[in-house]
Amino acid sequence: MNVYVTGIGMISALGPDVATALESLRQTRSGLGPIRHVATRLQGCYVAGEVSFSDNELATRANLPDADLTRTTLLGYLAAEEAWRGAGLGLGDTARTGFISASTVGGTGHAEHYYQAFRDQQPTPAFIDTYDNADSTEFISRRLGICDVVTTINTACASSANAIVLGMRLIRQGVLDRVVVGGTDALARFTLNGFNSLLLLDPVPCKPFDAGRKGINLGEGAAYLVLESEAVARQRGARLWARLSGYGVANDAFHQTGSSPTGRGLQLAMRQALDRAQLAPAAIGYLNAHGTGTANNDLTEGQAIRAVFGEAVPPFSSTKPFTGHALGAAGSIEAVLSVLALTHGLIWPNLNFEQPIPEHGLVPAQVLRAAPELAHVLSTSAAMGGSCCALLFSQP
Amino acid sequence: MPAYVNSIHCISPYQAAGATHAGAFIAPDPVYTEVLSPSELRRTPRLVKMGLYAAARCLADAGLDSVDAIVVGSGLGSFDGFEKFENALLEQAEETLAPTSFIQSLDNAVAGQLALKLECYGYNMTYTHRGFSFETALLDGLLLLAETDGPTNVLVGGLDETTPTYAQLLQRGGHLKSPAEAGRVELSHSPGVQPGEGATFLVLSSVRQPSTLAAVRAVRTVFSPRTALEVEHALTALLHEQHLAPGDLDLVLLGNGGDNAQDQKLRTVEASLPGIPREYFKNYCGEYHTAAAFAVWLGVQRLSSSGAAPGACAPKTCLIINQYRDVNYSIILLTRD
């Protein structure tokens, strides 16, 4: 059974919606900048892909100025609502419909705001009620009126890619006809310090796949896709953005925080996606790589790309120099960017690249390039805990 | 596609629970050295230890060295990791932090470490959705077994721990029952729950074998129903799909949490199933996000003749109906294999 993407929504460092992000990409304008909204000693030390609005501004944009919502929920709601509304859906369209979201940070940013007071035995709001990853999922589900399959995935940086996979599988098995899939994560002091403690942050704009790369720029945002079965999508005359033609899910099973020398998990995920779509590697016209900018990831991911594609590596790029690494939301943000690449026949450049990594010698796309014949786009994600995911989008 | 439970292991407060019990239900720690090396013991947080132990016992009982896929549900993951890293961050003013507790705070630590330990390169997933965490993991297991290119053996788990800080935060949030009101959940007239914890792993398989204990027939979740009728409709639909009538059920395990307001809908649903033997499983394990995993373990025990309630014949069909905070409702149908 074919599964189609019939709606997309995204808020990121590239802007509050898909249209603004598309314009930023066309102008090759990165969303990276100084940290302004997170209260942390690390402000001024690192650049990040922050969404440019304060929590209050986000709440106003969402028409929810009086609700006490976490930043993760606000970001998620804005993106999910854009995807849902953009797909032409409303409260009458919730039969056999699910919402599969992903988050790794959840309400941590909200909790850490009050944690010192809690330690000091002072009264605080009940931040434990919004701390978990499901808080945003449940708020958004209620607003959209979705109640059939509602759940939340956390497989670290592959979370929202895996949410897309679950949604597709639920449609293929006939459990659902329609599902909103994606993820949301807000930048938080906790995660900034976590990645800083692992010595994985680059103080200046990141350089994925470059020999001199220094690390990650964290980001934030949310992106959701509406997936529908072919029958339901055609019946209601929905706009078909893309066909979700394949997926792969694997575990690298090598180390808690580092990936294997050959990128075994990513290789498995990419091969599964190609097999499920019944496509040869040569069919891929653009690969949106995970490309975090860390020494370990870009070396091992490159080896995985070499193993799958050999000498005929398709045009590829990491778009994290545009958005930062939005952790749990990264997979669905990059899925939306992949759908946009397919729709507009454009290959997004890998900013800041200078010299290839000697071990694999891969050279990413460096300038915005028109690719009017683009038929199949592969998007990959990898995560701490070994989770690897590949998504394959094809022309509808 | 049948989904056989070829083994199941549970770390729970069940044995430690008396008739009445005030405060949190805490699971006694097993002898972790049976499955973990001294160095693993030192560097592994308790929740992960519970998971690794329950999974190892489960695999041994199924006669397996590894599995094809790992699916874990945990409502909160390692809250302990969050607490430790956040404390260090505040105490050291964001200077020279050690990454260990940050890594341990990742919710997919259990599934990731299991993949490492079992060298399982296959499907690996972690659900962190309150009272749907385990239910979605189980649903995913059923989906995997039904897929044409799917795995044969899926390790499915549900686990959460109640740390002192988490219990304190629940208390402050007004979620806990006052000790004076502690008692059996089905008799409760007061607000609040008694927190619990546990770690349950099972091998779900498309292949029946001599060790097979039971089968999982169906899982259904209902998000935030406005009335008990919505839950009853889901139940009727599930039984209809399985060609069963309510009268065919031999045992119902009910997930009343002990908060009289939050249990209202479940009490109404229960009243629609008259004359069927029932147990209230949170009397044994307390309330936590993945309590349904304990209920599956209990159901599997009851379905085997040795685990049936004293004086009763072993039931053949067991229905679990759970609710978490009157928002996450779930229905799981188990049968003797």
UniProtKB/TrEMBL annotation, chain A:
For this protein, the record's Gene3D superfamilies field holds: 3.40.47.10
Q: Which InterPro entries match?
A: Beta-ketoacyl_synthase (IPR000794), Ketoacyl_synth_C (IPR014031), Ketoacyl_synth_N (IPR014030), PKS_Beta-ketoAc_synthase_dom (IPR020841), Thiolase-like (IPR016039)
Q: Which PROSITE patterns match?
A: KS3_2
Q: Which residue range or ranges hold the Ketosynthase family 3 (KS3) domain? A: 1-395
Pfam assignment, any one: Ketoacyl-synt_C
Keyword annotations? Transferase
Entry keyword Lipoprotein: no
Q: Which SUPFAM superfamilies match?
A: Thiolase-like
Q: Where are the transmembrane segments?
A: none
Q: Which PANTHER family match?
A: 3-OXOACYL-[ACYL-CARRIER-PROTEIN] SYNTHASE, MITOCHONDRIAL, POLYKETIDE SYNTHASE-RELATED
Q: Which family does it belong to?
A: Belongs to the thiolase-like superfamily. Beta-ketoacyl-ACP synthases family.
- Name-wise, this protein is Beta-ketoacyl-[acyl-carrier-protein] synthase family protein
**Which species does the entry assign this protein to?**
Hymenobacter negativus
UniProtKB/TrEMBL annotation, chain B:
Question: Could you identify this protein by its name?
Answer: Beta-ketoacyl synthase chain length factor
Q: Known InterPro entries for this protein?
A: Ketoacyl_synth_N, Thiolase-like
Q: Which residues form a coiled coil?
A: none
Limits of the Beta-ketoacyl synthase-like N-terminal domain: 30-189
In terms of superkingdom, the source organism counts as Bacteria
